[in-house]
TrEMBL record, chain A:
Alphabetical list of Gene3D superfamilies matching this protein: TolB, C-terminal domain, TolB, N-terminal domain
Organism per entry: Primorskyibacter flagellatus
The gene coding this protein: tolB
Annotated Pfam families: PD40, TolB_N
Function: Part of the Tol-Pal system, which plays a role in outer membrane invagination during cell division and is important for maintaining outer membrane integrity.
Protein localization: Periplasm
Signal sequence extent: 1-28
Name of the protein in question: Tol-Pal system protein TolB
GO terms under cellular component: periplasmic space
Subunit composition and interactions: The Tol-Pal system is composed of five core proteins: the inner membrane proteins TolA, TolQ and TolR, the periplasmic protein TolB and the outer membrane protein Pal. They form a network linking the inner and outer membranes and the peptidoglycan layer.
From TrEMBL, chain B:
Annotated keywords: Cell cycle, Cell division, Cell outer membrane, Lipoprotein, Membrane, Palmitate, Signal
SUPFAM superfamilies noted in UniProt: OmpA-like (SSF103088)
One record GO biological process: cell division
Keyword Transcription regulation tagged: no
NCBIfam families: Pal_lipo (TIGR02802)
Signal peptide, first to last residue: 1-21
Subunit structure: The Tol-Pal system is composed of five core proteins: the inner membrane proteins TolA, TolQ and TolR, the periplasmic protein TolB and the outer membrane protein Pal. They form a network linking the inner and outer membranes and the peptidoglycan layer.
Cited InterPro entries: Bact_OuterMem_StrucFunc, OMP_bac, OmpA-like, OmpA-like_sf, Pal, Pal_lipo_C
PANTHER family according to UniProt: LIPOPROTEIN YIAD-RELATED (PTHR30329:SF21), STATOR ELEMENT OF FLAGELLAR MOTOR COMPLEX (PTHR30329)
Name of the molecule in the record: Peptidoglycan-associated lipoprotein
Family of the protein in this entry: Belongs to the Pal lipoprotein family.
Membrane topology: Lipid-anchor
Amino acid sequence: MTTHLTRLLTLLAALPVLSATLPEEARAEPLRIEITEGVIEPLPFAVPTFVPEGGAAADMANQITRVVSEDLTGTGLFREIPASAHIAKITSFSSPVQYADWKAINAQALITGAVSVNGQQITVKFRLYDVFSGAEMGDGLQFSGTTAGWRRMAHKVADAVYSRITGEGPYFDSRVVYVSENGPKNDRKKRLAIMDYDGANTQYLTDSSSIVLAPRFSPTGDRVLYTSYETGFPKIYVLDVASVGRRTLATPQGTMSFAPRFAPNGQTVVYSLEQGGNTDIYSMDINSGQSVRLTNTPSIETAPSFSPDGSRIVFESDRSGTQQLYVMPAGGGEPTRISFGQGRYGTPVWSPRGDLVAFTKQSKGRFHIGVMRLDGSEERLLTASFLDEGPTWAPNGRVIMFTRESQGEQGAASLYSVDISGRNLKKVRTEGSASDPSWSPLQK
Amino acid sequence: MKHTKRAALTLMAILALSACSQKEKFDNDVALGGANGGLNGSIQPGSASDPTSPLYFQQSVGDRVLFAVDQSTLSDEARVVLAGQAQWLNTNADYTAVIEGHADEQGTREYNLALGARRANAVREFLITQGVSGARLKTVTYGKERPIEICSVESCYAKNRRAVTVLAAGAIS
């Protein structure tokens, strides 16, 4: 599906207050959330149901408005003022906004929108207002796509609002590939599934006839690397998301290969290969099948993850006696240890912004998801539970999703997400039990 | 057949030594052996009382060894069980084996895969030192994917930290 992002220049001309023609410094943006700061109070906003403009748009306008609201409130940074409290009613997308009516109910941000449907095509436009400055924030935007992709239109609106107010990159228009789980611990069935970041539109990519583990998106989200026991032994496969076709990677001879991840170029894959009980890290050109050994020690080296610029790899090794994190050049070479706290550190994942590494930490019988800088400084544990593991970054590098497994005989896995500030820990909606999430890049 | 019986008797002696580490499994087997008369009664080919059967290997020789937390070192008890496995494999040359390495749930997925591989390989190496041809022994790791006990306490974890020798007839694929 393709979407178009079009500036509503014609509508801008009619704007009463600020317009794009004003110099940059005049466009002060007092409405701002710093998501790395300790937010005390979520920002109150109003999003009156988008105006249906022709076609059978009323139902869709209602659903889209709900998804926009859920995206924003789901971040924990925003709070919706319910429609029942609204004084003004938005009946036309082009009518001037009555700021006083929105100030009166303490809505700091106002989102208005309109939806039109033409056959299988849907067009959504929106505007964002800073109520207390009495000004529009940024330009009105319009998105078009198929009616089947209506949720993406809603996510794009919410992404634009989120980005303008937080100054952070967007992430709602994204997907998550994960392992769907069924059955008790000693007879667990696993299959690959893909869904929107919020749990909608679940689709299953494999059946559960063999164990599948740890799917990882390609940098463009078109392919997924994963490990499967299809042959009776763990091997790496690459799956095309659109066709669901898959093939095994030509890993060198060894008992097993696992923990694959793409390089930012989408052509190189790093992974672990086990030979004679020893696990080391290799990289492979996915087209030629040519592999290069990157580590060569008798210890366990696994869970490699590239830096966003492709120059370095963070991985875990127990060469010191316990699992710790190391960084090495992408072509191999002397690694630098970066984790020094008490406990065991594993599953490092480089942030898409390049500034942090997320990891799993085991300490005193508890599991944590944490982040630290690439020099190991500013370690921050974001979660604590019986078993948290396997972080994955939202496309904007501000939210982390991971697996939380509950304890005991009825123990089951769920996906959770948390901000890098440690706030807004919440369960991600999935069909049934779920583990090993991998967050896609922002959809094109 | 006589030769096999002698081997089996030796194995029984070894088993008595290893009964501690294999207790949960042998509770059943002792009852089974008693009912069938063990070596004294008539032997059903392929049954648990047939010393050449995979069932016998599984239940009487002991198909698994256990490991300490985050370790792949073989304990003295494990070595006794594996000596029995090696003897059985040397006697029953038609069988090959896949050694499965497992970990308990207290660890990250990837690390536990690597740990399970270490455990399976430790067993394979030991069997080779006991004269079993490496060509007959493959290893696979399941990490924490296939626990047999599902509680989240040490008594369950201890049984899940295991390497299991799974027999297959014929040449290794």
